[in-house]
Design goal:
- The protein is an alpha/beta fold.
- It has a single domain (7-181), classed as Rossmann fold (3-Layer(aba) Sandwich).
- The protein has helices at residues 7-11, 25-38, 52-61, 76-80, 99-112, 125-128, 134-151, 166-175; strands at 15-20, 42-47, 69-73, 90-92, 118-123, 154-160, 178-181.
- The chain has a 7-stranded parallel beta sheet, with helices on both faces.
Length: 183
């Protein structure tokens, strides 16, 4: 298995921007979750790209231990309407543009797992551009990265490199500890 995120850097609670091509972003997501699981992390996936039930199925088919994964899903309610949260498994946000609800969900999930070895995977920054302006995305990522740093939690932000405008890309690179290009 190829290592995308250095385990020593994860142990130091660093934050990463992982860049992928549009054709391999799904594979990178799965590979990162496998790595985190193998290292004993609880993975909190904030998904604006794939619905929970799709990611859950992909992870399961790829051999990921789902007892070490929970989701904040900003896609499903926007697509099909009302769905109920499943405590400890998935928390739904109304739509990817609702950054207030997403921020509250992140805070609540991190509080639920206080004291655990947690890493957040944000999939994907590029998809957010469909719903929000680059400055709003940048503000939200800045909020999340500061929260992670204050709580000593690792984070991975997944993005399609060619899907980000240069200004957003330069801002994101200042918020993270390392940029990993997997193209």
């Amino acid at each position: 298995m190829t290592v995308i995120v250095n385990p020593d850097d994860l142990a130091r609670n660093q934050i990463f921007l992982v860049l992928a091509t549009s054709g391999n972003i799904r594979e990178r997501n799965i590979e990162i979750i496998k790595e985190l699981s193998a290292l004993g992390f609880l993975s909190v996936i904030i998904t604006t790209n794939f619905p929970y039930n799709i990611l859950n199925k992909l992870y399961s088919q790829s051999g990921v231990d789902l007892s070490h994964v929970c989701f904040i899903d900003a896609v499903t309610r926007n697509s099909i309407g009302t769905v109920e949260n499943i405590h400890g498994v998935v928390r739904y946000v109304n739509n990817p543009a609702n950054l207030t609800d997403m921020g509250i969900a992140v805070t609540e999930v991190l509080k639920e797992h206080s004291g655990e070895k947690v890493c957040i995977l944000y999939d994907s920054v590029s998809t957010m551009l469909i719903y929000l302006s680059s400055p709003n995305i940048s503000k939200f990522i800045h909020f999340v990265t500061n929260k992670l740093r204050l709580l000593d939690i690792s984070g991975v932000f997944l993005a399609v490199e060619k899907g980000l405008d240069p200004m957003l890309m330069s801002q994101l690179t200042t918020f993270v500890d390392k940029v990993i290009d997997t193209e």
